[in-house]
């Protein structure tokens, strides 16, 4: 990263933005530390590598904004956002992602994130995102807000959702066929269409996706 110093003049009385970082990669932490220390608007209070450490820090420390990596040592950014909401910690978070998957951004927005930037963004973009969030604004990359709730499950029909629900309850193909009055071959046909829509290869992957998204949306502010 190319870093340009933006240090404030000695006559500036504005308080520095207090930042904490949660990121499992020590090289990313080192780069962030160098960036923030080269810019006089920020004060890096602490850096941790796990979600548990961050949540403990958030409950006990006063800071303006947290920069949280998408993948931590023990949980991902969605887990962190969910726990922050559940515990009513009231901290402002910028997710610092190295993954350009738009689905991750949508998930973070559904979970109430205030800021979102990428590790490959230029330093000024990262700085302005952190500043905006610290000052009470929301700063995320462009996203069609009408599609923010689009998920793999949102593309399913009512019947396909019902099928996925009974799969998660452990029903076999024979049980589904017997209880719905259709043949096992028809059940297999419907399952193949379901797997194709969810972009998964088998029953276990479909059930895991269903359970994961159900857990996320049950705690999402917009869910």
TrEMBL record:
The keyword DNA-binding applies. CDD domains: LuxR_C_like (cd06170). Keywords: DNA-binding, Transcription, Transcription regulation. InterPro entries: CheY-like_superfamily, Sig_transdc_resp-reg_C-effctor, Sig_transdc_resp-reg_receiver, Tscrpt_reg_LuxR_C, WalR-like, WH-like_DNA-bd_sf. Residues 149-214 form the HTH luxR-type domain. Coiled coil: none annotated. It comes from the Bacteria. SUPFAM superfamilies: C-terminal effector domain of the bipartite response regulators (SSF46894), CheY-like (SSF52172). Pfam families: GerE (PF00196), Response_reg (PF00072). Residues 18-134 form the Response regulatory domain. SMART domains: HTH_LUXR (SM00421), REC (SM00448). This is Response regulator transcription factor. It comes from Mesorhizobium vachelliae.
